[in-house]
Each structure stands twice: as structure tokens, then as C-alpha cells.
């Protein structure tokens, strides 16, 4: 048994197709991204676009009614959307990893049930798994369980069709992954997400009050088997693509603003800001760094396809190689996007700081999401492995 339905690599035209789909959705989102960010409302209409476009079902194997795409296509879609709307890109990125838990934690017999239902309903999967907030407990109740507790930072749960939940089983030294539909009795969405950026990512808290969990709702145990734990590097690779997309979007917007400026600085001897050597130098530096971030991210998108395709043959050493490689991509994209989103103001001038311009959206989004987990610990993973061969303990962050 392969333990994976993603046994092939992308066909030559697969990226071209899904890139085009994502670009169309991104263009629709871009039209009012700033106004929607300011309104800070639940992104219902935006998520409908993900469903209608096919992006929500891209990663579901074709035999179950999905788009039959590979991981690199899904990750590229996240990047493309992040150029226009990083909040919606975040929801999509998390969705891919959440519904892939059908495979990572579930037995093969469960795949048809959950993937088919997801494809038919064009479900979006939110999550309630935040590992630094482990206050969810499953208590045995007949053949099933009762779920109780509070979980913060539950991205996409309040807007998703179903939520992936990870909770400790009372009296047992294990954590189980289960699926809970949005409207199940006892699930309370607190709508308390109010952050500097990523405002439409639906990342508020969820409280579970004596929620009934049937045996069939449980996917399986969250353990440390090498293949199943690829989910965490997958999440981190989604972050890298998200950050790269934000950097790319900031550069595009900065170019528009620079070309739209009148004249040149009074001490310059050129006729327009776009011909000022200092302006050109900043763009050149930021473009080069973004290109480097793109190269390492594309490399690990492809390597992740290959690792996933190996299924049960993935070894602990394989998993460590993927972890370290993706950690490198996470470091580079984090620092590149933060620098780009900050320094584009240097070349767009004081007028670009006006609220209605919206250049701040890129900085607010990248500054907010890069706080998800400390990038210094990614540097530690990479440096320790290089010097001593050490590999960090497997967690939902490493």
C-alpha cells in the first residue's frame, strides 16, 4: 500500500492550467482587496470564488471527483492569490493541508468518504489545531467521544464547511484528529480575530461545548510516522509561498506607484523618479532577492511533490531532508518579504503612505503572519543540522 493518492508528478501543462485559474481569482480579489480589509468582515463572497473556480478541490484526486492536481500546483495557487489578497491565500493554504489530513492521519478506507464529500460539496476545511494552545479534550462517550475546550487561532474554522480538530484523548497518551461540520451543536465561533494584518483570514477562536464526536468522525492518531508528519513541512511550505506572493504583490504595486509619480526629486538630474538611479537600485536589489526566494521556493515545491509521491516509503531521513530544505525556504521568504514590504516605501514616496493608497496592506499582512512561529527557530533547525546533524523533535511546527 502506497499510503498516498498523489503518486505522480505534475503533467507538463498542469501548472499552466492552475496558474491561470488562480490568476483569474486573484484579479477578482484585487479589485476591492483594500476596501474589504478595511471593512474586516467574514470573507464569504471571497471563499465562494475559491469554490466556483475549482481551487478548493484542486488537490482532491480525480477518482474522488476533484481536480486531480499535485501539491506544487496548489502551493503556486496560494502564491498567486497572495499577490492580491494574502488573507484569502492563507485560508486556501491551510485548507489544502487540513483536508490532506484525510491521507496523513486517516486509513485508506476513509479516503473515498471524505474526499468524495469534499469534492461534491466543494468544502473548505478550517482548522482548530494550534499546538501552543492544547486545550481540547476528547472524553469517551459510548462508541464515540465528547469534545470540550477552547482553541485560539483557528484559521478558516468560522467560514469553513468542516473543521479539522486535534484533541487529547482523556486517559490515553495520544492526540486524535477528527472532523466536525460547521453547524454541529456545541461549536461556538467567538469571532475575536482583530489583528494588524491578515484581517480576513477568519483566524478567531472556537469553543467546543460537549460536542458529540462519532467514531466515524475520527481520522486517526496524530503520531510521528515519517510520511504522516510531512504535513508540517507542507504547512511551512505553504507559508513560504504565501510570503513570496506578498513580496511579489508589493513590488507590482510599488512599480505602479513609482511610474505614476510626477517629476523627480528636486536634487536629481533626471526627468522622472523611474529614471532616478537610487530608485532603480532599490528595485534592482529587491527584485534580485525576490527572485532568489522564488528559486528556493520552486525547488522545494517540486521536492515536496516527490516526497509525497513516495508515500509509505518515506523514511525518517527523507523527512528530515524535507524539513531542513523547507526551513531554508521559510527563512529566505520571511526575511525577503519583510524587507520588500518595508523598503518599497522608500521608492514610492510620502504620498504612498496615504491610507487610500493601501501599500501598507502588504506590510501589515507579512508582519502579522510571519509572527506565526519564530523564524530564529528555523535558523536553529538549519544551522544545528549543518553543524552536528541534529534534527529537531517532530512537532506541528517542525
Give a short overview:
It catalyses: dibenzothiophene 5-oxide + FMNH2 + O2 = dibenzothiophene 5,5-dioxide + FMN + H2O + H(+); dibenzothiophene + FMNH2 + O2 = dibenzothiophene 5-oxide + FMN + H2O + H(+); dibenzothiophene + 2 FMNH2 + 2 O2 = dibenzothiophene 5,5-dioxide + 2 FMN + 2 H2O + 2 H(+). With 398 residues, the chain is α+β, with helices and mostly antiparallel strands. Helices cover 50% and strands 12% of the residues.
Your description of this structure?
This protein is 50% helix and 12% strand. With 398 residues, it is of the alpha+beta class. It folds into three domains: 14-124, Acyl-CoA dehydrogenase/oxidase, N-terminal domain (Butyryl-Coa Dehydrogenase, subunit A, domain 1, Orthogonal Bundle), CATH 1.10.540; 128-221, Butyryl-CoA Dehydrogenase, subunit A, domain 2 (Beta Barrel), CATH 2.40.110; 228-388, Butyryl-CoA Dehydrogenase, subunit A, domain 3. Strands 1, 2, 3, 4, 5, 6, 7 and 8 form an eight-stranded mixed β-sheet that branches. Helix 1 packs parallel to helix 4. The longest helix has 34 residues, at 277-310.
Amino acid at each position: 500500500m502506497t499510503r498516498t493518492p498523489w503518486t505522480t508528478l505534475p503533467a507538463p501543462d498542469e501548472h499552466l492550467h492552475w496558474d491561470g485559474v488562480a490568476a483569474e481569482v486573484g484579479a477578482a480579489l484585487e479589485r476591492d482587496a483594500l476596501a474589504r480589509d478595511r471593512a474586516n468582515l467574514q470573507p464569504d463572497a471571497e471563499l465562494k470564488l475559491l469554490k466556483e473556480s475549482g481551487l478548493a478541490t484542486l488537490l482532491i484526486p480525480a477518482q474522488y471527483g476533484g481536480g486531480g492536481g499535485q501539491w506544487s500546483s496548489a502551493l503556486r495557487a496560494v502564491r498567486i492569490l497572495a499577490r492580491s489578497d494574502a488573507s484569502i491565500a492563507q485560508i486556501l493554504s491551510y485548507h489544502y493541508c487540513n483536508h490532506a489530513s484525510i491521507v496523513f492521519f486517516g486509513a485508506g478506507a476513509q479516503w473515498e468518504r471524505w474526499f468524495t464529500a469534499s469534492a461534491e460539496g466543494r468544502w473548505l476545511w478550517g482548522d482548530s489545531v494550534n499546538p501552543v494552545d492544547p486545550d481540547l479534550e476528547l472524553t469517551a462517550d459510548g462508541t464515540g467521544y465528547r469534545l470540550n475546550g477552547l482553541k485560539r487561532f483557528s484559521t478558516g474554522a468560522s467560514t469553513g464547511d468542516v473543521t479539522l480538530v486535534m484533541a487529547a484523548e482523556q486517559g490515553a497518551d495520544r492526540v486524535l484528529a477528527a472532523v466536525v461540520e460547521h453547524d454541529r451543536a456545541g461549536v461556538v465561533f467567538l469571532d475575536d480575530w482583530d489583528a494588524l494584518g491578515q484581517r480576513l483570514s477568519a483566524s478567531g477562536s472556537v469553543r467546543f461545548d460537549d460536542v458529540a464526536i462519532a467514531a466515524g468522525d475520527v481520522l486517526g492518531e496524530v503520531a510521528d510516522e515519517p510520511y504522516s508528519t510531512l504535513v508540517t513541512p507542507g504547512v511551512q511550505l505553504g507559508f513560504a509561498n504565501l510570503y513570496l506572493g506578498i513580496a511579489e504583490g508589493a513590488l507590482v504595486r510599488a512599480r505602479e506607484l513609482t511610474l505614476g509619480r510626477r517629476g523627480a526629486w528636486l536634487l536629481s538630474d533626471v526627468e522622472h523618479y523611474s529614471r532616478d538611479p537610487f530608485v532603480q537600485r532599490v528595485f534592482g536589489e529587491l527584485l534580485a532577492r525576490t527572485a532568489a526566494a522564488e528559486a528556493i521556493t520552486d525547488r522545494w515545491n517540486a521536492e515536496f511533490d516527490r516526497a509525497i509521491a513516495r508515500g509509505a516509503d518515506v523514511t525518517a531521513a527523507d523527512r528530515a531532508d524535507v524539513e531542513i530544505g523547507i526551513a531554508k525556504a521559510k527563512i529566505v521568504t520571511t526575511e525577503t518579504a519583510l524587507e520588500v514590504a518595508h523598503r518599497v516605501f522608500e521608492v514610492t514616496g510620502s504620498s504612498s503612505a496615504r491610507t487610500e493608497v493601501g501599500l501598507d496592506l502588504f506590510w501589515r499582512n507579512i508582519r502579522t503572519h510571519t509572527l506565526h512561529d519564530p523564524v530564529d527557530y528555523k535558523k536553529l533547525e538549519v544551522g544545528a543540522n549543518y553543524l552536528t546533524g541534529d534534527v529537531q523533535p517532530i512537532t506541528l511546527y517542525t
